[in-house]
């Protein structure tokens, strides 16, 4: 979580995790990387094996979570294993945005 993030000038990181992330939006993708919760989106950055950045903006529907699955519109992001960061704190912060 030490790399520079591509945040908008008025965007703020509320919480962050590093770990194994499973994303489903019609296609299942699994990444090992950083998951940032900002006041505007869920932001995934993976530099292991592949270089990928994905944003899930809070413009669409946000629903409650089951276990470690965060749902934004049609996207489901499951945190399978957190290497660094507090998953419980991350989930509680996400729920406050709902």
How would you portray this structure in words?
The protein has 98 residues and is mostly beta strands. It has a single domain, classed as PH-domain like. Helix content is 11%, strand content 55%. The chain has 1 helix and 7 strands. The protein has one helix at 87-97; strands at 13-24, 28-38, 41-46, 52-57, 62-66, 69-72, 75-84. The chain has a 7-stranded antiparallel β-sheet. The radius of gyration is 12 Å and the shape is globular.
Distance between the termini: 25 Å
**How much strand content do the residues show?**
over 45%
- Total domain modules: 1
* Global mean pLDDT: 85
The global form is globular
Largest beta sheet: strand ordering: 4-3-2-1-7-6-5
In the CATH scheme, what's the topology name? PH-domain like
SS summary, helix count: 1
CATH secondary-structure class: Mainly Beta
Number of strands: 7
Alpha-carbon Rg, integer = 12 Å
- Which structural category fits the helices and strands? mainly beta
Element order, helices and strands? EEEEEEEH
User: Helix amount, in percent?
Assistant: 10-25%
- Low-confidence runs: none
The biggest sheet, with number of strands, parallel, antiparallel or mixed sense and barrel status, is: 7 strands, antiparallel
- Tell me which CATH architecture applies here: Roll
């Amino acid at each position: 979580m030490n790399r520079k993030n591509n945040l908008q000038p008025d965007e703020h990181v509320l919480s962050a995790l590093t770990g194994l992330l499973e994303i489903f939006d019609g296609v299942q993708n699994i990444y090992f990387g950083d998951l940032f919760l900002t006041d505007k989106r869920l932001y995934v950055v993976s530099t292991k094996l592949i270089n990928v950045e994905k944003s899930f903006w809070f413009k669409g529907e946000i629903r409650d979570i089951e276990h470690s699955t965060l749902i934004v519109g049609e996207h489901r992001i499951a945190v399978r294993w957190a290497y660094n960061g507090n998953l419980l704190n991350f989930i509680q912060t996400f729920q406050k945005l709902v």
